[in-house]
Design goal:
Blueprint (H helix, E strand, L loop, with lengths): L3 E3 L2 E2 L2 E2 L3 E3 L10 H27 L23 H8 L16 H14 L8 H14 L2 H9 L1 H11 L7
Helix pairs in contact: 1-2, 3-4
Pfam families: DDE_3
Protein name: Tc1-like transposase DDE domain-containing protein
GO molecular function: nucleic acid binding
């Protein structure tokens, strides 16, 4: 059973959880699914809410949007529908290695959710039960914990830089 969920986090912010349903082979997510189910209906209000919080904390900093390396996000080409949408609305993607989960704090949230569901006595057996369990665990993630993830990103950036022999920023 496969369930795909999308959520956004930031310091002082956690978005509503969105379940995305793929239209590709074996219900795989395609770029048009991500565009029509996440970006178009949800991303602008989410970014506006996040910008409001970010500007309270650091008025001179533009928020960056980070996505993982899921092909449905459409990072490979400037001509794909998701990239055209991001460009149209001035959504700036944070460059990071897509295969480095430590560089994306949301990955720690997904791991926390998976571990919590795995520990449940009653395991979800239907898509509906799985979506309900994922939503329940998403809502149970404390904002203080998310804030600590965000604050800890500087550490992970420095670890990555050191690992590759690059100098750390001043």
């Amino acid at each position: 059973m496969s369930v795909s969920a999308w959520g956004a986090i930031g310091y002082g912010y956690k978005s509503p959880l969105i379940f995305v349903h793929g239209t590709g082979k074996k219900e795989a997510l395609k770029q048009v699914d991500y565009l029509s189910q996440v970006l178009k209906p949800h991303i602008r209000p989410i970014l506006e809410a996040f910008v409001a919080i970010t500007h309270l904390l650091r008025p001179c900093v533009e928020p960056l949007f980070m996505e993982d390396s899921n092909p449905a996000h459409g990072h490979k080409s400037q001509a794909n529908c998701c990239q055209r949408f991001r460009t149209l609305y001035g959504i700036i993607l944070m460059p990071h290695p897509g295969s480095s989960p430590d560089m994306n704090p949301i990955e720690k949230c997904w791991r926390r959710i998976k571990q919590a569901i795995h520990r449940r006595v009653h395991q979800p057996t239907t898509v509906e039960e799985m979506e309900a369990a994922v939503r329940e665990e998403w809502e149970a993630i404390p904002q203080d914990w998310i804030n600590q993830l965000v604050l800890g990103q500087e550490h992970w950036v420095n670890v990555l830089l050191k690992r590759h022999g690059w100098s750390t920023p001043n």
